[in-house]
Automatic annotation (TrEMBL):
<dbReference type="InterPro" id="IPR008906">
    <property type="entry name" value="HATC_C_dom"/>
</dbReference>
<protein>
    <recommendedName>
        <fullName>HAT C-terminal dimerisation domain-containing protein</fullName>
    </recommendedName>
</protein>
<dbReference type="GO" id="GO:0046983">
    <property type="term" value="F:protein dimerization activity"/>
</dbReference>
<dbReference type="InterPro" id="IPR012337">
    <property type="entry name" value="RNaseH-like_sf"/>
</dbReference>
<dbReference type="Pfam" id="PF05699">
    <property type="entry name" value="Dimer_Tnp_hAT"/>
</dbReference>
<feature type="domain" description="HAT C-terminal dimerisation">
    <location>
        <begin position="135"/>
        <end position="216"/>
    </location>
</feature>
Length: 241
């Protein structure tokens, strides 16, 4: 599912009209670009899955979509962590941590000791609490080594403890189960037709894939017979000339 957004954007970029293009090519590119935008509609899952791929999280292929994805992931994090009190900083728009004050157990200050009266007063201690935004920011700052494998499931397995809530989202969205019994049957029957993890493909599409697989040999024979027939007819026409 994480491939949808970047590949869609690549296709749209390829449809960008250039000055040196012919008028026909410009019309074709414009038509295809608008068609892709209107038909290939992105859903929240596409944004989130793209963001949760460690090599796609910065959205270099589609910078204008990054803020949307960031907002969706942040919202999902807040829902899952069930924080009771969330305060928004107008400057950084970040979630604050819970504050716990530890009482000072030192002896009362002697009023006759003028210097002691000038000592700094105890400050409240801010407890180190992991918040959704902190986890999100840590994920954004996390640097992926160039030599690391592109296996997204391996990445999240290795970093599950570091990004616990994000890992839960990955498990839920990257392994979408079959939607009903019919689609489940199609998955079992399709075998190697769909080799990637299950996606939200519709029943109609699977039926078409199964039809092609089951009738591939017959379709090849029909095509071969038709080609032979056309070739024979062409020879007959040439012989009559």
């Amino acid at each position: 599912m994480h491939q949808v957004l970047p590949i869609r954007q690549l296709l749209i970029d390829q449809c960008e009209v250039k000055f040196e293009d012919s008028s026909e090519l410009k019309e074709l590119k414009f038509f295809l670009g608008e068609r892709i935008k209107s038909v290939w509609i992105l859903q929240d899952q596409h944004y989130i899955c793209t963001f949760l791929h460690p090599r796609l999280k910065r959205f270099d292929v589609a910078p204008h979509e990054k803020d949307i994805a960031f907002g969706l992931v942040k919202r999902e994090l807040l829902v899952r962590t069930s924080i009771s009190r969330i305060t928004t900083d107008t400057a950084s728009n970040a979630v604050t941590t819970n504050v716990s004050i530890i009482n000072d157990s030192t002896a009362p200050v002697d009023p006759n000791n003028l210097l002691a009266c000038c000592f700094d007063k105890p400050r409240p201690i801010i407890s180190s609490v992991t918040t959704p935004v902190k986890e999100l920011n840590d994920y954004m700052k996390f640097i992926i080594p160039d030599e690391e494998s592109d296996d997204i499931f391996l990445f999240w397995k290795n970093h599950e403890k570091l990004f616990q809530t994000l890992s839960e989202i990955v498990r839920d969205l990257y392994a979408i189960s079959a939607s009903n019994t019919i689609v489940e049957r199609l998955f079992l029957a399709s075998k190697n037709i769909v080799t990637d993890r299950r996606t939200s493909l519709g029943e109609e599409k699977f039926n078409k894939l199964l039809f092609l697989k089951r009738n591939l040999f017959t379709l090849k024979e029909i095509k071969k017979t038709k080609l032979n027939k056309n070739e024979e007819q062409s020879k007959q026409r040439l012989s009559t000339l």
